[in-house]
């Protein structure tokens, strides 16, 4: 079935015969969760799918183009199943559910019901796309996992959730979070304070994710005890990391030497997750990214898994997905332009000479 939310099918080819359908959710509590706060979930369905959604008690009345209504019915039934299985549904979950079902997945349960962790606010953290589900499964089953893809796809967040879950289940004794201290296109100059204060701005995103998963006081206590360590990559040299869940974030900004150094720190009963976006490298021009190099060197080693994400896995604001696609189109056109000029120049040089005849 085509996904009417993707807008990739020309309007002339889409099934536009008006139709209607009714879905009875059967109980008020499930209906309330499905509709969302002030019916925000239903309003999102209307905007994304091009249907009208009315509510009468526990019944949802859907009307619009036939294929859009059929997709909306499947979406509502899948969301209802998730709610009955104990998974709360929020606006962003509906957004992701449309993407997941639109890519041919038969059931949302097989993707979005595998809870990784309950955060400090008792909110369930779980995969929201097929790629995220495969990523979480890979972390469970492999000792070294690379998560490669654009911003907003949940690479670091899910890795952090898995690390906290492993710590809570006593599968590891500590969590180590590392990032290369590379400035994102800006020269910040001299930073005041001691060493910890100097590197803290680079590590702030890791602290933010950690605080989203446990109470700030609890996180601070674990940091003070050394159970959770947040440090720049340079601090890893010379260490052996046993019984640890190690995350290397922003790995596209490592050099080849740094990546090799990090990967060889892994000790017994440890896991390493390396995340990065190869389109946002901040290394000096001409310096090879350690992440890109690792993808080519390590791809055929058993026990090492590469999880690839794309723009369809973005779980931030819907416009982030469009921004990523726009930049990809721009970069593709810039790369294609020199090739087109070379081809045109070659064809001109190969043109046969025309002999002049005197009359």
UniProtKB/TrEMBL annotation:
One of its GO terms (cellular component) is cytosol. Keywords: ATP-binding, Cytoplasm, Nucleotide-binding. It is found in: Cytoplasm. It comes from the Bacteria. GO terms for molecular function: ATP binding. Residues 124-328 form the PhoH-like protein domain. Its main location: cytoplasm. InterPro entries: P-loop_NTPase, PhoH, PhoH2-like. Residues 333-359 have a biased composition (Low complexity). Residues 329-359 are annotated as: Disordered. The keyword Transferase does not apply. Belongs to the PhoH family. This is PhoH-like protein.
């Amino acid at each position: 079935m085509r996904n009417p939310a993707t807008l990739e099918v020309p309007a002339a080819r889409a099934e536009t015969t008006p139709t209607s359908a009714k879905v009875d959710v059967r109980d008020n509590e499930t209906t309330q969760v499905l509709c969302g706060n002030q019916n925000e979930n239903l309003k999102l369905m209307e905007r994304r799918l091009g249907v009208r959604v009315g509510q009468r008690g526990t019944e949802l009345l859907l009307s619009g183009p036939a294929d859009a209504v059929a997709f909306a019915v499947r979406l509502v039934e899948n969301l209802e199943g998730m709610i009955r299985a104990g998974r709360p549904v929020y606006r962003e979950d509906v957004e992701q559910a449309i993407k997941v079902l639109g890519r041919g997945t038969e059931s949302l349960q097989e993707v979005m019901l595998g809870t990784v962790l309950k955060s400090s606010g008792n909110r369930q953290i779980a995969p929201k796309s097929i790629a995220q589900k495969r990523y979480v499964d890979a972390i469970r089953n492999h000792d070294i996992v690379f998560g490669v893809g654009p911003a907003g796809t949940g690479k670091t967040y899910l890795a952090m959730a898995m690390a906290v879950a492993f710590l809570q289940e006593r599968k590891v004794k500590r969590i180590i979070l590392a990032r290369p201290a590379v400035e994102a296109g800006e020269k910040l100059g001299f930073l005041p304070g001691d060493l910890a204060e100097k590197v803290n701005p680079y590590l702030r995103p890791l602290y933010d994710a950690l605080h989203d998963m446990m109470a700030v006081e609890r996180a601070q206590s674990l940091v003070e005890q050394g159970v959770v360590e947040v440090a720049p990559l340079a601090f890893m040299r010379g260490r052996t990391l046993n019984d640890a869940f190690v995350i290397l974030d922003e790995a596209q900004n490592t050099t080849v030497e740094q990546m090799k150094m990090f990967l060889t720190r892994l000790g017994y009963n440890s896991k390493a997750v390396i995340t990065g976006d190869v389109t946002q490298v901040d290394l000096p021009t001409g310096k090879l990214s350690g992440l890109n190099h690792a993808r080519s060197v390590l791809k055929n080693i058993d026990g090492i898994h590469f999880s690839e994400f794309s723009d369809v896995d973005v779980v931030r604001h819907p416009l982030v997905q469009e921004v990523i696609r726009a930049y990809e189109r721009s970069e593709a056109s810039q790369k294609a332009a020199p090739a087109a000029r070379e081809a045109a120049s070659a064809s001109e040089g190969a043109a046969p000479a025309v002999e002049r005849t005197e009359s």
